[in-house]
Amino acid sequence: MAANSKRSKFFDNAKFILIFLVVFGHIISPLKEQDGILFTLYTAIFLFHMPAFILISGYFAKGYRKKGYLKKSVQKILIPYLIFQMIYSIYYYLIGQEEKLAFDFLHPHWSLWFLLSLFFWNLLLYVFAKLKWLGLGAAIILGIAIGYVADAGSFLSLSRTFVFFPYFLLGFLLNANQLKRVVRSKYSLPIGIMIIIATMIFFGMGFPKDAVPWLLGDTSYANMGGLQWWDGLVRLLQYVLTLLVVFGFLALIPSTQYKLTKIGERTLYVYLFHGFIIKSIQAILPDETLEFLSGHYILLFFLSFFICQLLGSYFIKKYTRPLVELKVKTG
User: Fold this and answer.
1) Inside any domain, residue 112
2) pLDDT, tens digit, for every residue of 25-71?
3) Residue 1, in any domain of the structure
4) 131-173 pLDDT tens trace
5) Do the Cβ atoms of 52 and 18 come closer than 8 Å?
6) Which listed residue, 119, 120, 161, 287, has the most CB atoms within 10 A of its CB?
7) For the whole prediction, is pTM greater than 0.85?
8) How many domains is the chain built from?
9) Enclosing H/E stretch for 252
10) How far is residue 247 from each of residues 97, 277, 292, 315, measured CA to CA in Å?
């Protein structure tokens, strides 16, 4: 599991499953209100899939002190964000989702918040990493406190940046031995299975529909149904439960090489491009067809799987790498 030059099959497998959950979650998002099973799947997925992704991203940010790291972050994270923000602006205008063409780099389109927040998380390491585990405590306090700021929201992805930063910093602070002890101990697998089953049962028993914004972390407590003094305690409990599920999930991930493991190396391509496919499907298909799809779980599963295979293919990487990674030569 070490973060070295040799790619970890464990992390690539985890990233493949997580990007599949991202795609699947976005596909079922407009369908979840009409189907209890899809709502349960949606809420359970959104509880942990991005925190797990973010934790893994933090784990591989240990070289932030190396020369050129900040420049690399600008090239690989910030510039692609700016490029795809423009592309999505044009796309939304063409499909009629936006009335006029405008380029707003301060409010990320849809899933692009992750790139902007990822850039800020790397910057925040220069302050919080020096504090080590005290820094994690400070990050948790900030993640709780940002919810009390009424105007915190999508502007510069500020809400999500602070809400999800503790996961990134925890991933950074964990070393290979610590992570291995948690996810590869004697009882990790059965405990992980029980955690996932318990999570599905808990959400299936009646997760409040008005509590979904808590899973997204993109707005203040006041905008999630009214500010209460104990909202910070709710977020703290959410941190604890989310981390429990994240490590339960990681305990189930194999370290074996599979054909699909390779897609785990190309999750950025799936993440950036899957929105065009999903939004196009939603724009083209009539509401009656979408309602029909909501009851066909296997079809939704395989559609998500197909999108991941397509966008995670070598073909897509070869011809879009100059746009995504600002590189012409492929490896």
Assistant:
1) yes
2) 999 998 888 888 999 999 999 999 999 999 999 999 999 989 999 99
3) no
4) 999 999 999 999 999 999 988 889 999 999 999 999 999 999 9
5) yes
6) 161
7) yes
8) 1
9) none
10) 38, 31, 35, 33
